[in-house]
Amino acid sequence: VAVLVCLRGRAGGQAPEVSTLLGSCPDLTVLITSRAPLRLRGEREYPVPPLKVPDPSSVPEVEEIIDAPAARLFVKRAQEASPTFELTEANAAAVASICWRLDGLPLALGLVAGKVRFLGPTELLSRLDQALEVGAERDLPERQRTMRATLDWSYELLHGPEKELFRRLSVFSGGFTLEEAEAVGATGAVAVEEVLLLFGNLVEQSL
After folding, report:
1. Rounded Cα distance, 27 and 101, in Å
2. What pLDDT, on a 0 to 100 scale, did the predictor assign at position 143?
3. Which of 27, 68, 145, 203 counts the highest number of beta carbons within 10 A?
4. Please, what is the average pLDDT of the chain?
5. 3-state SS string over 49-90?
6. What count of Cα atoms within 13 Å lies in the side-chain half-sphere of residue 11?
7. Nearest to 117 by CA among 130, 129, 99, 131
8. Is the dihedral angle over the CA atoms 186, 188, 189, 191 positive or is it negative?
9. HSE on the CB side for 158, CA within 13 Å?
10. 34 near 204, Cβ under 8 Å?
11. Phi first, then psi: what are they for 31, rounded to 5°?
């Protein structure tokens, strides 16, 4: 028997219920979609990577671009918003650039593609940051209607010390070492011996 479970909020809060289910039903398999692991024995993670984007090192051709999963998703969502939309030689380069800029993130691609009903790909590319903050379909959860709402939702799920460390780590650009994280993070509400644990929590929650 297999069960699909979609978890909201901090996944750890639902861990006891899932553990009870597994303990009561030895043949049960639970497939969970969550932003963080449950940390249960026997749990196996399957990270979902971003979609592959068109090759940025080559001159974009329509056939090559549509072969990339990120571009296919963009075109599909764009045609749902505007049935007359087509990937052409004239807009192929802009579509490829949008996919590159958004790193193949499905939510971001879907949010932006919906704007082709009033912006062409070239105009959309020049206003990409704005497009990510324009509300999406009304039947989406509030947290998925803009990228800022998604990030705010993820941030608000953090505990106080995790938020404190996350804010302090924002001073870095291009990565940092654990020692550097400890140097800036071990102040205020966060002790130096807590940084490693809190840092691990941020990684688990994709932040």
Report:
1. 44
2. 67
3. 68
4. 84
5. CCCCCCCCCCCCCHHHHHCCHHHHHHHHHHHHHCCCCCCCCC
6. 19
7. 131
8. positive
9. 22
10. no
11. -105, 115
